Amino acid sequence: MRKSLVGTAAAALFGAAALVGIATAPAAADSASAQPTAHRTPSFEGTVALSNCSGSVVKLKNSKPGDPALVLSNGHCLQEGMPGAGEVVVNKKTSRDFTLLNADGSDAGKVHSDKIAYATMTDTDISLYETTSTYRQIEKKYGIDALTLDAKHPRQGRDITVVSGYWKEKFGCSVDGFAYRLKEADWTWKDSIRYTMDCQTKGGTSGSPVIDNVSGKVVGVNNTHNEDGERCTLNNPCEVDKNGNVSVRHLNAYGQQTYLINPCFGRGNQLDLDARGCVLPEPKA
């Protein structure tokens, strides 16, 4: 998990804020990003920078202009610390600011959240913050439209761009395939997106939206990278197939699919884990 440089215990646990491939403490941004091989390159509009990670303002299938805007990032990017295996955070009070970016990567302003609507590192690695601004208010004040979460499973072979608000940098590649299970330390994720090797993400890119270059929609959230070629250890995720066979892909980066989020939020962008079609993990009783 690749977070960013933060002097917290959680950050130290994952390599100065790196998590299961989750962006480990980022090094200086001195390397050029690979560019998408085809189609249009997504801009930075709607992406955000967190204190330790990246993220994006996203709207769901049923979101309305007057609904509170949601910010998508990784579960391991919570400033309260990373959720343990099996832990699910729902409607928890918080106080967090996000720096919103314009299309050219310049800072547009701040948006604030006082609630973590949902966060987990079980089956997936996501966090969704409810902001104190509506989509309409953000568009009126900053002229920025939220990114749209694709309601469909991403497609193998499609060109994608990982857009990091933290670094104001883009990483272009394609969907290489999908890992049946991706295991890193105590965490296991299902049906993870495996990138082609062009996307060499780094610390601080955790939580970046993974955008399909053709549709312009978000199909995933960037979360980890096998850094040292180790097997299933922190910052070194391994793939486990349906038969339990383990494989290690040194330097491969991964993201978590986001289409599963859509069915779990209803009217007013409110979380409903009991909704039809919602399969996100629920808090333990």
Describe this structure in words.
The chain is mostly beta strands and 285 residues long. The protein has a single domain (1-285), classed as Thrombin, subunit H, CATH 2.40.10. 5% of the residues lie in helices and 38% in strands. It is built from two helices and 15 strands. The strands form two sheets. It has a six-stranded antiparallel beta barrel. Strands 8-9-10-15-12-11 form a six-stranded antiparallel beta barrel. Strand 5 (107-120) and strand 6 (126-134) form a beta hairpin. The protein is globular, with a radius of gyration of 17 Å. The protein starts with 8 loop residues before the first helix and ends in a 28-residue tail after the last strand. Mean pLDDT is 90; it is low at 4-38.
Give the biggest beta sheet.
6 strands, antiparallel, barrel
Output the CATH topology. Answer: Thrombin, subunit H
Rounded to an integer in angstroms, the radius of gyration calculated over CA atoms is: 17 Å
Q: How much of the residues is beta strand, in percent?
A: 35-45%
Distance N to C terminus: 28 Å
- The assigned CATH architecture is Beta Barrel
Helix content: under 10%
CATH superfamily grouping? Trypsin-like serine proteases
Stretches where pLDDT falls below 50 for ≥5 residues? 4-38
Count of individual domains: 1
Shape: globular
Number of strands: 15
Helix and strand element order: HEEEEEEHEEEEEEEEE
Mean pLDDT: 90
SS content category: mainly beta
So what's the CATH class? Mainly Beta
Placed side by side, the strands forming the largest sheet appear as 1-2-3-6-5-4
Number of helices: 2
